[in-house]
Design goal:
36% helix, 360 residues, 13% strand, binds N-carbamoyl-L-aspartate, alpha/beta, four-stranded parallel β-sheet
């Protein structure tokens, strides 16, 4: 049996007070020289930022089509190093961030579990993160604890050597870069029909513990005349904080348990899996909620332009035979993640202008 030392938990003076402030008051803390510095919450993004990042991602993907273009991209940030600190399972977020770094020439280091870091010796996560900042120029983190990225960015910003922190998923709370790639995907899928403005989006599944749908919901405030339909079993309904946010920003939404009834009226269906890992006894959560699955029989019920998204990993929520339908956008969505993350990193290091100039 492996023995782990008890983790050190010391109080950071001022953290509680900061943490309890409204997000609107906190965002300024994560900005430097009028640019977003740390990516912590989806509420940090406004429409002009989102539009800019999408066009930046388009430019990167266009440049990456040729050897000459790829070489130009790789010469943008070869002097920078990134740390991928992923202590919660991840395939897509990890690989897309890692490859986004490599596209721009950054070198990367990784830690993929607390059992291989000095946390085993009782080091606090905050000290572990501070250590990364001694060696690298960017930290990308995924952690099972809500608010983890926020706390580490807050701690680092008070040191003499801060580096930007990108939140690659913080427990059941937020996944802001997933929301960016979801927006990028939706804008691309709706490119010929006016983009995301005016569209009705259904979010389906475990809305209570799914961080992707929470972060994506926040971004809806940036689009005109959008409507949201939350489709979830009673136990996994969207939490009140998000519903209050939508109401505050006059975004119409409704909730239902009858998935089939809303299929014909929506422009996009965003499927999610049941997040068993957050249950107290995950193995006992055997129910798969088949009424909230998308089946081949549903393909004739949804609109011809309806985009089907899923942050992945998928279990039973989408029949694999749906993958062949042109409306299945989730594999394209996964690839969008790499381009938008490359766009984000280029923006963080201020080389975005060079990318845009290359194509102008
Ligand atoms: C999501 C996540 O980790 O929150 N996956 C991802 O980042 N693409 C969704 C999930 O795990 O269900």
């Amino acid at each position: 049996m492996e023995k782990f030392a008890e983790q050190t938990l010391q109080e950071f003076e001022g953290w509680e007070e900061f943490f309890n402030k409204p997000v609107d008051e906190k965002v300024q803390n994560f900005v430097r020289h009028n640019r977003i510095y740390d990516i912590i919450y989806a509420q940090q993004f406004d429409r002009s930022f989102l539009d800019y990042l999408c066009s930046l991602a388009d430019s990167i993907r266009l440049l990456a089509k040729t050897k000459v273009g790829q070489s130009k991209l790789r010469h943008l940030l070869p002097h920078k190093r990134a740390m991928l600190y992923f202590v919660q399972p991840s395939t897509r977020t990890f690989l897309s961030f890692q490859n986004a770094c490599h596209i721009l020439g950054l070198t990367t280091s990784e830690i993929r579990g607390t059992s291989t870091s000095s946390e085993v010796k009782g080091e606090s996560p905050e000290d572990t993160i501070r250590t990364f900042a001694s060696y690298v120029d960017l930290i990308i983190s995924r952690h099972p604890e809500a608010g983890f990225a926020e706390k580490t960015a807050w701690v680092l910003n008070q040191t003499e050597h801060p580096v930007p922190v990108l939140n690659g998923g913080s427990g059941p709370d937020q996944h802001p870069t997933q929301a960016l790639l979801d927006i990028y995907t939706l804008e691309r899928e709706f490119r010929t029909i006016g983009g995301l403005d005016g569209k009705k989006i259904a979010m389906v599944g475990d809305l209570k513990r799914g961080r992707t749908v929470r972060s994506l919901s926040y971004l809806m405030k940036n689009y005109q005349d959008v409507e949201v339909v939350y489709v979830a079993p009673e136990v996994f309904k969207m939490k009140d904080d998000i519903k209050e946010f939508l109401s505050k920003h006059d975004i119409p939404f409704k909730e239902t348990e009858d998935f089939e009834s809303i299929m014909p009226e929506v422009d996009a269906i965003y499927m999610t899996r049941i997040q068993n890992e957050y249950g107290s006894d995950p193995t006992s959560e055997a129910e798969t909620y088949p009424q909230f699955h998308l089946k081949t029989s549903h393909l004739s019920m949804i609109q011809t332009h309806c985009a089907i998204l899923h942050p992945l990993p998928r279990r039973y929520e989408i029949d694999i035979r749906i993958d062949k339908d042109p409306r299945a956008a989730y594999w394209r969505q996964e690839r969008c993640g790499m381009w938008i993350r490359a766009a984000l990193i280029s923006y963080i290091f201020g080389v975005d202008g060079e990318i845009m100039n290359e194509l102008s």
